[in-house]
Amino acid sequence: MIKRSAAVSALLAAATCAALLPLANPASAGPWDGVRSWETATVKRVVDGDTLIVNDEVTGAESRIRLLGINSPEITTSAHAGQCGGAQARKIMKSLVPVGTRVRLAAVDQASKGKSARPQRVVLAWNPATGEFDQDLAWAMAERGLGVWFTVAKEAAMSSLYREAIAGAQARGVGIWNPNLCRQALQPDAVLSLRIGRTPVGGGVADEWVSVRNTGASTVDISGWMLRDSGLQGWYVFPGGSILTPGDYRVVHSGKGTPGKPDGHDVYAGTTA
Length: 273
Prior knowledge:
Helix content is 12%, strand content 30%. By secondary structure, it is mostly beta strands. It has 2 domains: 18-177, CATH 2.40.50.90; 192-268, no CATH class. It has a 5-stranded mixed barrel. A 4-stranded mixed beta sheet has the order 10-11-16-17, with no helix packed on it. It is elongated and about 60 Å long. The relative contact order is 0.19.
């Protein structure tokens, strides 16, 4: 599971607030030299914070476009419950690209597709002020703290643009990085740090780990806290009695094992593939 999330930052989903910032960083800031596919379309519907339905301006074909670079919190659907920040992310995306907005779709590989065969694209919105497609939607969402990093190998040069914006949002405590986004933080004095142990490319996903350490001055109860990657589902939920005194830590291994071994800090998520 951690292998699957090697391109994203692991995070503790305890609770997460929105701050409106400038629209976006100019698209010219990115490495566009590798782009081989440029398409122009019109927004028909905003699905959520990282997915749009558009109509191609040339063919009229309708496509469900998945933004490269970020994964926004999920919204509530008939299939699953939403995540904290999902409704906020969709609201902001709707404000950035109202129905009818022209967008430019960019990719290194035109065949780039993700889940449910959705084309994966960097999406640049038309900017009336400049007369250019220079409003990078993933950057706009990232700097507002409304997404974690998401990439695929063949489009990595493009999506690497957004890591700095996400790090800045984390530092400012905005969007999903604000512990009061959906409710008042229960432990506002909690200060935790994460480290990720990754296996080399081609290694087994069962051999990776994430350590969670209390670097603050107060004891923190992480019972029920969720360790997750950029996906919808939580990867590991800490059991009752998971108390971290200052300096204490847990090492969550992706594979199977006996909790408390080789020492009392080790727990296991049980991933086998």
